Amino acid sequence: MNGMLETSYGEIHYQIDGNGFPVVFLHGYLESREIWNDFIPEFLSSFQTIRIDIPGHGKSTVNFGMLTTEDMATSIQQVLESLSIKSAAFVGHSMGGYAALAFADLFPDMVKGLVLLHSHPNADSQGKIADRIADVERVEMGLFPDIVNDSIPRLFSNDNVIRFSDSIEHSKSIALKTPEIGVIAALRGMAARKDRNHIIHNLAVPAIMIFGAKDNLISAEMANAIALKHPKCQVLWLSESGHMGFIEEKHQTASAIMSFLTALLDRV
Length: 268
Prior knowledge:
This protein is α/β, with parallel strands linked by helices. The chain has helices at 69-82, 95-106, 126-140, 144-151, 165-176, 180-191, 197-202, 220-229, 245-248, 250-264; strands at 2-7, 10-17, 21-26, 47-52, 88-93, 111-117, 207-212, 234-238. The radius of gyration is 17 Å and the shape is globular.
């Protein structure tokens, strides 16, 4: 079932499939709910999946020039409230993980489990903030296609660029559909986001962080440091993945998330 909710942030589009305990899948920057199409079928026999286009991405519009992770979280909460969903598990890829952490910060009683997929709780470094602001300027100069062509291949392990060339082209096609206002709003919002390590530390429900050993965006050193901060949190390393493990090592990723979600059912 496809749906749309009119909010102060814009029109939020979403898709619901399957039956069972609800699991919200949140895509990353320059992605949309379409990125999950080949991954979702693994879950439909056991769970109700809710895929949401974050404002300014996919079919969702955005009304502001900056969309904070708190804004993302609130728009997601409004969708769930409209569907009478009182609690769910959350799977957030990259920027979607930032939104999921903000959701856990703002609406903790609605979170029954958290999967951070190639994401992390740290705030941006000063260097990363500068990179995001530089990309805002490039978009304003009309160079958004260059950003897509430069950034999408880097999401995959360097060893996987040839093997997953079709997936890279598909990811580029999704990215190029993102309106420039959505790109800019997300960049500014990610640059301004808070450190949320305390959310994972204090989380009252299970969480798992999934990292790619060959990720060009989250170094193994950074991921290890984050994992050491949170010994109560499960950690999975995908040995052959970059930033796109749900594509690069699809079955291993799906199996890990399915096991995690199945274990949650005993708690809800």
